[in-house]
Design a protein that fits this description.
This protein is an alpha+beta fold. The chain has two domains: 79 residues, 3-Layer(aba) Sandwich (Glutaredoxin), CATH 3.40.30; 107 residues, Up-down Bundle (Glutathione S-transferase Yfyf (Class Pi), Chain A, domain 2). It is 54% helix and 7% strand. Helix 1 packs parallel to helix 3, helix 1 packs across helix 6 and helix 4 runs antiparallel to helix 5. The longest helix is centred in the middle third of the chain and has 27 residues. The chain is globular and about 50 Å long. The structure holds glutathione (GSH). Glutathione (GSH) binds next to loops.
């Protein structure tokens, strides 16, 4: 199994899940800064030009963060990364969709890549401000979902790996102050050996 990743990208959350599972995997770096995602050989692997992409032994490739995480949880049930009830699975899907489609794609992407949202350079600061508002509203919502629990669904799940990459970005890349519940969640995740291994191997610790 190969994870196509870029250091400090959202693929970090999938990298954490692979470390939590603890089975052998290979990391293949895609240098987003130099545009490697738009060139061969990566473009043939994922024509959408995004990481994470997970290449399986049979040659198939899984893309989209929630789909990759779901696949890993379902194929490694002994790691207990998804609830077993329908209600729990639906809650996990609801959280993943909100975190990736809204907080990441509509919020952080505006902050990190404002030029994707306007043809006018002068408008970029306004785009970034909107991005920060989306992320702040998202963090408020997610702090409520977390409440006083240690992890979003009670026990560690794929949803916490998504929340980890978002809160890590919030602090490290966007220099934001997290709501207290999310700051505690980030510290709890950072204390996990799997997270420490993923950060170290991406050169982030
Ligand atoms: N919807 C995708 C989004 C993935 C994504 O935005 N990946 C970013 C890195 S965090 C990327 O590869 N960007 C490269 C580019 O857009 O050029 C998912 O859920 O996996």
């Amino acid at each position: 199994m190969k994870l196509f990743y870029s250091p400090n990208a959202c693929s970090l959350g999938i990298h954490v899940l692979l470390e939590e599972i603890g089975k052998p995997f290979e990391l293949v770096k895609v240098d987003l800064a130099s545009g490697a995602q738009y060139k061969e050989p990566f473009i043939s692997l994922n024509p959408k030009s995004k990481v994470p992409a997970l290449a399986l032994e049979d040659g198939s490739v899984i893309t989209e963060w929630p789909a990759v995480a779901w696949y890993l949880a379902k194929t490694n049930p002994e790691a207990h990364l998804l609830p077993t009830t329908l209600e729990g699975e639906v809650k996990a899907l609801e959280l993943l969709d909100y975190m990736v489609a809204t907080v990441h794609m509509r919020g952080f992407t505006r902050i990190f890549r404002p030029a994707n949202f306007t043809p006018t350079t002068a408008d970029e600061p306004a785009v970034q401000r909107t991005g920060r508002e989306v992320v702040e509203a998202g963090f408020k919502q997610l702090a409520q979902s977390l409440g006083a629990k240690a992890y979003l669904l009670g026990d560690l799940s794929i949803a916490d790996a998504a929340l980890f990459y978002l809160t890590h970005w919030g602090v490290q890349r966007a220099k934001m102050t997290l709501p207290p519940a999310l700051a505690s969640h980030l510290e709890r995740m950072r204390a996990r050996p799997a997270v420490q291994r993923a950060l170290a191997s991406e050169g982030l610790s």
